[in-house]
Amino acid sequence: MSAPDWLALPDLASRRLGGGVVGTNDELFAAADNLVTPEPPGFTPRTFGPKGQVYDGWETRRRRTPGEDWAIVRLGAAGVVRGLVVDTSFFTGNYPPAASVHGCRLDGHPSLDELSAADWVPLVTHGALEGDTANMFFSSQAGLITHVKLVIHPDGGVARLRVHGEVVPDPTRFPDGWLDLAAVENGGRVVGCSDLFYGSPAQLVEPGLARTMGEGWETRRRRDAGNDWVVVRLAAPGRLRLAELDTSHFKGNAPGAASLRGVDERKADPADEAAWRDLLPRTDLRPDTRHRFVLRTDPVTHVRLDIHPDGGMARLRLHGHLDDGVLDTLRAAWDRSAGRAGN
Computed from CA positions of residues 188, 191, 194, 198, in that sequence, does the dihedral angle turn out positive or negative? Predict the structure, then answer.
């Protein structure tokens, strides 16, 4: 069975985006903070601490009273949730038989008391779980979500919670319309690439600096006359003014050169190769270097990075100004969505 399309969307709860656990009723055996760790869960058998076998996940005590256990997660980026993964990897005799997930919208930095009193809407209603499995659930809730509440029935362990969805740009984060238009936390997203053999191109637009080569995008070695590429759909239409092509940590495998092209889908079909225009001509790159290039572009909605011929890159930053009227449109959309999820 093929993976659902929503798995390709960003994990809004990931620690890499700034997600975090803000409260739980119980974490006796293993901390709820593990739920939003971006790396896959691990397990070392017969590794015992003061409270028993050490698990890379969230695990509550055995419940002897009616009720259920819960953890509240602040999303790193607000958005519309399309699907969730309740991952019980390595929990075999101690996983919950079922889980529910609810969402709410509370702007700013709400307290746990404010979150407890929020109007929560269902994202997953009492879904059955299997042990040692990435349990996947589709969500049809259309409202903007800032926090989710994972409820397990009645107790047990969950390794990870993934909340995949579409980032909705928060206009309060760029009041003058200047932002990194490629950044996933602002709503940018990789929508196509030629090769992802060694590393996902989605990592190009993640926050912060890459800590290792493994946190970037790397292609296999080309043995033909072509080159590799990646296409980014920008957070919103904008005029680019500064590009950063970061090859940090890529020393013997950085691309020899790179170029940028763009298209405005409001005026031309991105599928039309002739519609793309040059933003940055083919330029030599250096290994392990944060390259910065000044740009002066007309508005674009998509950018294609071509690397020549292959190799790896840590990050792609595309700073610029939103196109005329776009910031007002984003503000109006943000305000309209306030009534579409619990707050």
Answer: positive
Per the listing, tokens 């079909």 go with 269
- Cα separation of 240 and 299, whole Å? 7
pLDDT digits (tens, 9 = 90+) for 287-306: 999 999 999 999 999 999 99
Is 313 within 8 Å of 251 (Cβ atoms)? no
- 117 and 156 assigned to the same domain: yes
pLDDT in tens, 13-65: 999 999 999 999 999 999 999 999 999 999 988 888 888 888 999 999 999 99
Cα-based distances in Å from 304 to 101, 111, 135, 160, 264: 37, 41, 34, 33, 12
Structure tokens at 195: 């090769």
Q: Are residues 35 and 159 in the same domain?
A: yes
The answer to whether residues 193 and 243 belong to one domain is yes
